[in-house]
Amino acid sequence: MEIHNKRKYLSFLKFKRNFQKYGLGKVRSYELVLHWLKNRLNRNQFLILSGILVGCTAGLAGVLLKALVHYIHYFIVTKVHFEYQILFYIVFPFLGIVLTTLIVLTVFKGQDRKGIGAILYEIAQNSSIVSGVKMYSQIIQSAITVGLGGSAGLESPIAVSGAAIGSNYAQTYKLDYKERTLLLAAGATAGIASAFNAPVAGIMFAFEILLTGVVFSDFIPLVVAAVCGSLLSRILLQEEVLFRFYARESFNYHNIPYYLVLGLIAGLYARYFVLISQKVEHFIKRLHLSRMRIAMLGGAALSILCLLLPPLFGEGYNVIKAFADGNAQVIIHNSFFRYFKIDEWSLILFLALICLLKVFATSITIYSGGNGGNFAPSLFAGGTLGFLFAIICKQIGFTEVPVSNLVLVGMAGVMSGVMYAPLTAIFLIAESSMGFDLFIPLMIVSVMSYLIARWFSVVPPDFRTLAAEGKIFTHEHDRNLLSTLHTKDLIDRDSQIINSESTVTDLQEMIKHGKKNIFAVLDARRHLKGILTLDDIRPLLFNTDMGGTGTVQQLMKPPIAIVHPTQALPEVIKLFDDTGVWHLPVVNDNDEFIGFISKSTILTSYRQLLKEYSA
C-alpha cells in the first residue's frame, strides 16, 4: 500500500514538472491537482468530479447572495417602524437602480447583458464561453438592485453567475464544446437549486430552458451539481431564508373547478405580465436619454410604487409566505392601507393593485438599469393572484376554499406562463411545499397557463430578442446547432472573378487554368454585376463566332439572390431553398464583392459540428 501511494506521489511530481516545463505557466496547487486528476480519471469520472466542484461553487454564490439580500429586507421590513420605512421606500429603490447603473458604466464598462437571455446567447453565439467577469458582476449588481428594494428576482443573476463558473471551469481544463455546455448548465442548475432549495426544479430548468432541443447522454453532472447546490442552501441558510412553505391543505378532487378557473386566469395574467413588460422595455428604449438619466427616472418611479404598495419592495417572498398562511393583515399593516378601515373588498382592491402594478415595478427595475430577473416576480404575482382569487371566491359565498393551495398553484401557473417552463414550475412548488400530493392541481394550472401563453406567442420572452435577431432558435435541434455557425466564417474568399468588359477569349483562358465552375463578374469598383457558371457558358465555349468579339457582360446573368456576411445562417439556408442554387454571392454594405458561399460548405460544417456535439 505504501509503495502504491509513493508511486502515485512520484507520478504527480513528474506531471507537475512536465506541466511547468512546456510553458503552461504557474498554476494554483488545486488547479495542478485537477489537471493531474483529469489525466488519471476517465471522461465520465472527471465530469462527475467537475459537476461536484462547479455545483458547490455556484451553490455558495447563490447562498451568499440570497442571505445578504434577505437580511437587508428583514431589517427594513420587520425591525424598522413604518414611519422610518417610508423613508427607506423613497430612498433605497432609487439608490439601488442608480448605483447599479453607475457600477455597470464605470467598473464593468457598460457591459450589462443580463437575465436568462445572457446564458442563451453565450450557448448559441459564443460556443458556451462566458466571460469570467460574470462570475461576480451579476452578484454585485443584483445584490445592490434587489437588496435596496428593486422589484426583481435574484434567481436569474444567480443562474448567470453559476453558468459563468461552469464555463470558466471548463475553459481552465480545456474541455470541448459539449462538455463546456454541460458544465455551464450544471453551474446554472446549482444556482437555481440553491436559490430555491429544489434540486429537481434546478435540473428541469436546465433541460427546459437552457438546453432546449439539445440531447445529453451525460446528465449526471447536472444531478450532482443540483444536489450540491441544494444541500449547501439547506445547511447554510436559516429556515426563514429558505424558499419553503409549510401551510398547505391536502388535495381534494372536489376542488378541481377552482384549479381549472385559476389556470385560465393565470394564463391570461401571464400574458398581461409579458405584454406590459415588453411595452415598458420599448418605452424606456424610445426615451433616447443617457443611461444615468434613465436610471434616475426609473428609480424615482420605482420608489413611488414601493411607497404606495410596500409589497412591491424587493423579491416579496415573505409576503407570499404570509398569504399562504392566510395572514394578509400583517402585509396591510405595513402600508398606507393601515390608516383605513379594512374589510374584504378593501383587501381585494389592495391585492388587485399589487397584481396590476407588480409587472410595472419589475420592468422598470430591470430595463431602467437594475439587475434582476422574472423568476421571483412571476412567483410573487402568481401567489398574490391565487390569494386574490381565493378571497373573491370566499366573498362570493363559496365555502371550504383551499386558500393555501391556491396560493401555491397560482405561483406555478404564472411562472409557467411567463417563463414558458411548466415542468420547472411544477417541481419547484412541489419541492418547496413538500406538496407532492398537489401534483394534479399543479399540472392542471401550469399546463393551462403554459398553453394559453403559447397560444399568444410560441417564442418565450427570454428568447424573443435573440430569436428576432436570428441568433437563437428555440425548438429544433438542427437550428440550435446552426445558430452556432456564422455566415462570415463560411465564405469562400478565394473566388474566381472577371471584369465585366473582358472578352470571351479571356474567359476561356481563365476556365482553362481555373479550378472552379462559378465566376463573379465585377466592374472596376469591384461591384457585383452578375455571375457566370460553366453550365451557362458550356454551349458557347467552342463557338468561334463569339471568340474575341463577345464580352462577358453579354453572357452573365444577374444573381438570383445576394447574401450579406452579417445574415444569420438559417436565413441563408432559406435563400438556398427558395432559389434552388448551390452557390450565392456575398457582398458587403458597399455592394463590394467578398466571395461565394456554397450549400455544400454549410452542410459539411454542420455535419462536423453534429459529429463533435454527439461524440
TrEMBL record:
The keyword Kinase does not apply. InterPro entries: CBS_dom, CBS_dom_sf, Cl-channel_core, ClC, ClC-type_chloride_channel. GO terms for molecular function: chloride channel activity. The chain crosses the membrane at residues 46-74, 86-108, 182-207, 219-237, 258-274, 294-313, 347-369, 375-393, 405-430, 436-456. The lineage of its organism: Bacteria, Pseudomonadati, Bacteroidota, Chitinophagia, Chitinophagales. The keyword Transmembrane applies. It comes from Niabella soli DSM 19437. CDD domains: CBS_pair_SF, Voltage_gated_ClC. Pfam families: CBS, Voltage_CLC. PANTHER family: CHLORIDE CHANNEL PROTEIN CLC-E. GO terms for cellular component: chloride channel complex. It is found in: Membrane. PROSITE patterns: CBS. It comes from the Bacteria. This is Chloride channel protein. Keywords: CBS domain, Chloride, Chloride channel, Ion channel, Ion transport, Membrane, Transmembrane, Transmembrane helix, Transport. SUPFAM superfamilies: CBS-domain pair, Clc chloride channel. Its main location: membrane. Residues 556-612 form the CBS domain. It is a multi-pass membrane protein.
